[in-house]
């Protein structure tokens, strides 16, 4: 089963994942899979009622968290192109724009139709099709050892950049309890068993994780020698994810 098939098959049954929002250093908003899915259906309905069609771009300047993920899922449902932006960014030349408050702004003129197989694009113009996202997961976990569903996963990378999106997407596919935008000092309390970071970022990240915990370190790019030394010393597994954007 492809990554996108798993994504679509598991969510409506409420199996996984859950998204945890962090405000002021505390995880005080949690949305289970069914909540995420039903919320995404409402967002998709607002896209349809405002005249957004398949293949058109919807930019999103929401903070990372529950509403951001619902917007991503809604775009997948409607086969629209999801354009993640830094929180509060002004509307670019996109058909629809979700602003910082979550309100949908609709552009006056239609964009040219895009390939409806694409799911995400970045301001640089680079992006992934659904097939490319499948390949991303398959290449990262070639041995089939995807971390267990329900793993507590933390990504500290900016979610509006390609590397940060990788962490969010992997968390959604594997059915993780996904923590986005976590301060490093919170890691000791969370005790994650999956962390996502950039090359060279494992030593400071794992220094906050209790030494009794072992898990998977996803490095978006090529792990450095220091990364490999750290995971070896801690008994973790390093999984490099090649950041190839066709």
% residues in beta strands = 15-25%
DSSP summary, beta strand count? 13
Series of H and E elements: HEEHEHEEEEEHEHEHEHEHE
pLDDT < 50 runs, ≥5 residues: none
CATH H level of the largest domain: which superfamily? Answer: NAD(P)-binding Rossmann-like Domain
Strand order of the largest sheet: 2-1-10-9-11-12-13
Helix/strand class = alpha/beta
Give the CATH class of the largest domain: Alpha Beta
- The CATH architecture of the largest domain can be given as 3-Layer(aba) Sandwich
Q: What count of structural domains?
A: 2
Description:
It is a single chain. This protein has 246 residues and is α/β, with parallel strands linked by helices. It folds into 2 domains: 34-127, no CATH class; 135-241, NAD(P)-binding Rossmann-like Domain (Rossmann fold), CATH 3.40.50.720. Helices cover 33% and strands 22% of the residues. The protein is built from 8 helices and 13 strands. It has helices at residues 3-10, 33-49, 66-78, 130-140, 162-174, 187-190, 202-206, 225-234; strands at residues 18-23, 26-31, 57-60, 81-84, 96-98, 104-106, 118-121, 127-129, 152-155, 177-180, 194-197, 216-220, 237-241. The strands form 3 sheets. A 7-stranded mixed β-sheet has the order 2-1-10-9-11-12-13, with helices on both faces. It has a 4-stranded mixed β-sheet with strand order 4-3-5-6, covered by helices on one side. Strands 7-8 form a two-stranded antiparallel ribbon. Helix 2 (33-49) crosses helix 3. The protein is globular and about 55 Å long.
